[in-house]
Amino acid sequence: MFSQTTLLLAFAAGACAHMRMASPKPYGFATLSSAPLTMAEFPCKQRPGVYTVDLAMNQWNPGETKPIIIMGTAVHGGGSCQYSITTDPEPTKDSQWKVIHSVVGNCMASIMANYDEEAGDPLLVQKAFNHTVTMPSNIPEGRYTFAWSWMNKLGNREFYMNCAPIQVGSGTGTASTESAAKALGALPDMFVANLDETCQTIHGIDFVYPDPGQSVERGSSANLKFSADFDETKKSGCAKVTKMGAGAGKIGSPSPGTPSTPSQGSPSTPSQSTPPSVPSQGTTPTKPSGAPASPQVSQQPAASPSSGYGAPQQSKIPTNPNGGGFAPGASSAPASGSTPQASAPAAAKPTPPAAQPVQSTTPQTPGDNNTTPANGECTPCTNDGAVVCIGSKQFGLCNRGCAVAQDLAAGMACSGGVVVAATKRHVHFPRAHLHRRFSASRFL
């Protein structure tokens, strides 16, 4: 017979077989499975105890950048995902979700498989994927709900959504719908599809959001295939389903035909717990003429991060060397790897060369730093963008030679620059929720 501990470990392993958010800590983490949503479970994977706040509230300041960590191995060949917020502490179908960052392609990976099959890993060897997301600087302080939503590329047509409680600011502010509308009303609503067979994206395609928002990250692998189309035989309900992110529309939405123009994009894969094998690419932004132009991509090392909420550009999904997100402590100065627009403000005085870290196109293997710094202090590092383990209970993302410590989510550990589940067991899991046409597929 299995002991209770063994059964609990098996349940935890099954929950991580697909993908779920580990940081910020989601609502009801103990009951949150990694399975995709059904129509009845929208939003936030409805279940008993769905809005239980485990431990402490997730803190996030206006203008602050944080890494969003997604755990699992069944990456379904990647896909596209969005990060959104709503003013409702316990969201319903009437809640309106405003997109603060979109990833088009390579979310959560760029391989044409699942990691456990691609690398021959046991199912429970968890991998950590992260994007960095910046909270809008003009957002009123108060209680919000943050969401990660994902439409996978391969396998069944699925929609994943995990939600987490966040407190923006000091905790003393209370954001009203009116004040939030002024800051968030112009942002696009979260895009929804694949909840049922009336509105499905195309298998094998990285979906292009019709309005990705002001902060956009675009994948760059050779496996990418972009399209904004739906399955021709399964799109009768798209007019309704795709608008579910708008809820009752109490915050407000951009006027039809005038989508919010992104100011950032990136030809980079999501940060992983292992060093990337391909250097990030730089870009030349579109010219400030009246006609839109496709961005030109040049092969250059990644430059310094820059703000995800800057002046708009012509292209809806431009490319940029920074991923549309920033590690803690990142600067808001323009990236040195991109050509500034003609209409941009005059540049500030150049920083002395000695103050800038050396850019490397061959990342070093991240390691551990067993010294836990005081709150807010910097841990020196050499590999920009890599995960740095700080002590036994903290980690940071290397940014310009500095990693700022952040607490690991419960049940997580960091070793050798890898964030993993603290306990690993070899457990066999049945392949579930496969449609008949994918019964021979290797994608869960």
TrEMBL record:
Residues 1-17 form the signal peptide. Residues 252-307, 328-349 have a biased composition (Low complexity). It comes from the Eukaryota. The keyword Signal applies. Residues 244-371 are annotated as: Disordered. Keywords: Signal. The keyword Signal applies. This is Lytic polysaccharide monooxygenase. The lineage of its organism: Eukaryota, Fungi, Dikarya, Ascomycota, Pezizomycotina.
